[in-house]
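Query structure, 211 tokens:
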């Protein structure tokens, strides 16, 4: 009898020991990450935050660069108030065989003359008198034709793109546009403009960007 009780008592002790071991193991599993693991996680979070900060800084610098490409002016010209937004081509263009020079794109709003858009050359001339067609491409889209004209004047080497508001809408919604135009030196040339920094509020009443 005593041996049987001892045997049963031994079983109870063994079961108790098993439960105690399981409890101890569970307690060990609930302790959470170690100090080394916490340090590694903190380091990863710090690196990620640093990368985000650098990316945001680069984005701000690029946005400021693009905005600075545009020049805005308000003046009285020809007896009327005039507002302009102008930008130079990203790369210089050789329009007359004398070397590459900037091409300027201008949007103008004049109290008497209305709204207009035009290109200005620093050398050579457009082969567009009295009229021609230019090709305008927005970002990676296929180019589209637009009607243009060269005024019968030698005061400035300028060529108007007839639908100023259509060109403005394309420009306001684009990161880059390119305009291919004919020149008297022969053939066509292409001027590219990084237009993403346009501040449409500088030209009141013109269509706002859709994006």
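Result returned for the query:
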């Amino acid at each position: 009898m005593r041996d049987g009780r001892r045997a049963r008592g031994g079983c109870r002790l063994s079961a108790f020991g098993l439960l105690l071991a399981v409890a101890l193991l569970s307690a060990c599993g609930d302790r959470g990450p170690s100090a080394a693991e916490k340090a590694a996680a903190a380091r990863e979070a710090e690196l990620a935050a640093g990368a985000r900060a650098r990316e945001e800084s680069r984005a701000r610098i690029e946005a400021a660069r693009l905005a600075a490409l545009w020049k805005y002016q308000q003046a009285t010209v020809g007896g009327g108030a005039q507002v302009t937004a102008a930008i130079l081509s990203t790369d210089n263009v050789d329009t007359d065989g004398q070397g590459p020079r900037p091409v300027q794109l201008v949007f103008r709003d004049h109290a008497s003359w209305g709204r207009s858009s035009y290109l200005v050359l620093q050398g050579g001339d457009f082969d567009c008198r009295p009229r021609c067609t230019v090709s305008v491409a927005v970002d990676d889209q296929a180019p589209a034709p637009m009607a243009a004209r060269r005024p019968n004047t030698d005061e400035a080497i300028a060529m108007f793109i007839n639908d100023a508001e259509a060109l403005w809408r394309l420009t306001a919604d684009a990161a880059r546009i390119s305009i291919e135009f004919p020149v008297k030196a022969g053939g066509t040339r292409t001027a590219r403009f990084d237009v993403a920094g346009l501040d449409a509020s500088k030209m009141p009443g013109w269509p706002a960007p859709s994006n």
